[in-house]
TrEMBL record:
Transmembrane segments: 29-50
Compartmental location: Cell envelope
InterPro entries registered for this protein in UniProt: Ba3_CcO_II_C, CcO_II-like_C, Copper_CuA, Cupredoxin, NosZ/Cyto_c_oxidase_sub2
Full protein name: Cytochrome c oxidase subunit II
Length: 188
């Protein structure tokens, strides 16, 4: 305290002094802004709940799979679901579905052959622990949770071979858990 310059000189003229009422005004503005932001957040969350933008957790909707009720299955009983024979299949209506099973430390099928330019609906599940399914060079990246089916539809635009990696640490062989997706030119 003693080595401070004498207060009789006052602040330099270029710097306006912050009076008590100036600070009070700034704080009131900030408090008002915070109140407005809090109100906006509250009403937007409330509105999304009321309008149903937040997906319900009841498991309704989504993809319907024979042998899989509400996207849930027993990981120990995959044999009674379409995942018993993993791979690509063409339905009678011409749609394509790909079933993939992730298990420590591989994907089944290890090599998935798909045509380019056609929408393919993927269904992926885990036979044991939590895995990931990420196809490099695409925006495919899902969590593969045991007991649940991850479903999405995608269309590969370019032919070529891409790696499918597990991006969720699943054990000692995790770094070897690499599959392949071979995208072929569609048959005429
Ligand atoms: Cu893994």
């Amino acid at each position: 305290m003693t080595d401070r310059p004498s207060s009789t000189q006052g602040p330099p003229p270029s710097v306006p002094r912050l009076e008590h009422h100036t600070l009070e005004r700034i704080e009131t503005v900030w408090l008002g802004l915070a109140t407005v932001i809090a109100l906006l957040l509250f009403t937007s969350v409330l509105a999304s709940f009321l309008s149903g933008t937040i997906p319900s957790l009841s498991g309704e909707g989504g993809h319907q799979l024979t042998g899989v009720a509400k996207g849930r299955l027993d990981p120990k009983d995959i044999a009674s679901t379409p995942f018993a024979t993993p791979g690509l299949r063409e339905n009678p209506d011409g749609t394509l579905e790909a079933f993939v099973v992730a298990k420590a430390f591989a994907f089944d099928p290890p090599v998935l052959r798909v045509p380019a330019g056609r929408p393919i609906t993927f269904h992926i599940t885990s036979a044991d622990v939590m895995h990931g399914y990420q196809v490099e060079g695409t925006n495919i990246n899902v969590n593969v949770i045991p007991g649940q089916v991850a479903s999405f539809t995608t269309t590969f635009r370019y032919t070529g071979t891409r790696s499918a990696v597990c991006n969720e640490y699943c054990g000692t062989g995790h770094h070897n858990m690499i599959g392949r997706v071979i995208i072929e030119a569609p048959k005429p």
